[in-house]
Prior knowledge:
globular; transmembrane; Methylamine utilisation protein MauE domain-containing protein; five-stranded mixed β-sheet; Methylamine_util_MauE; Glutaredoxin; membrane; transmembrane helix; 13% strand; alpha+beta; 389 residues
Amino acid sequence: MKALQKVISAIIGIVFMLSGFVKIDDPMGTAIKFEEYFHVFAEDVSSTFPFLEQFFLSLVGVSLLLSVLFSAFEFILGAALLINYRAKLMHRLTLVLLVFFGFLTFYSAFYDKVTDCGCFGDAIKFSPWGSFAKDLILLVLLLISMSLLSKGKKSSKYGVYGGGPSVQKQNKTIYKKISLWMSVLFAFGMCYYALQHLPPIDFRPYKVGNNIAEMMQPQEACVSVYYMEKDGEEKRFENYPTDPSWKFVRMETVNAKECQPIIPDYYISNDEGEDFTEITIKGTKLLVIIQNVSQIESETMEPINQLIRDLSSEDVASLAITSDASDFEGFLKKMRMSIPFYYADATVLKAVVRSNPGIMLVKDGVILGKWHHNDTPSRQDISQLLNKE
């Protein structure tokens, strides 16, 4: 019984650690998902509970802090379950977390509000009902583990059978505490690194080596079937029938998921909405990604400015892409940047690079490099990447 309980606890712990790992690898992505949930909740309660609407909207401003705390806690809790540290307490905390997860995933699935819960970040995508089923399975396993845990120790008026803790047990407890503190340092260290640089592992489509132009195309040819009706009978056709007596009912795409582009929303335009997407995927381009100008200081832009000046003699065209609808031209003048600029959706730019501002080097659609503004590359770095091609 005791061995089975430890195995079940370890399984749950590993799942939590994996889920927590992809979140601490990219806390900004988890913060974006939090913001999505807060906006959905605020909208849903706005008519009945206005004070809750303001509460959820106020949480948007601290979504990044909540993301770091929540992501680290999930990873640490998983580690505690894996090593069976303070099992009863950790099982109770896990129960609270799973009930919370279950509510979110059920809410998303039943009301079709948030199509991806972000349980495993961008690494593994779950459908809303798939996420809810996962939480139910984990909940059942947890309850079994809790039941076995309560039966594992029988007490008498003299305490737990077996007497006081031995030296070996004390040593195990020390090792468990050291392991747990290592997981704490690792979790918060990963979050700090990801925010000050970029996620160590990029699970998004815009990772180095991927080709933007190819990802904008359908993954495979769409296959459609046609449902037609004649004399009250409905029949499915793989090709549209030439017999005019068959009346069209509906058309379905068999491989709807597979025939969609990996990135269907990558669209670059000027201030009038004209399509300039191709300019970013033809030739060699240094893209300066700026999401929000109000959060950027001049000293942040100076290294990027220097890089643009250094590359002016190279065959590398620099341009800015922003989602900020304010006076972006005025911002560039203030920063003394003389480069063309274009617009893109804010969600797309957040997916492209988790930095404001961020830098991306693209050659004929292939992403050669991505940098946080804290790690602005030099001209030599750019040259080395281009010479590898």
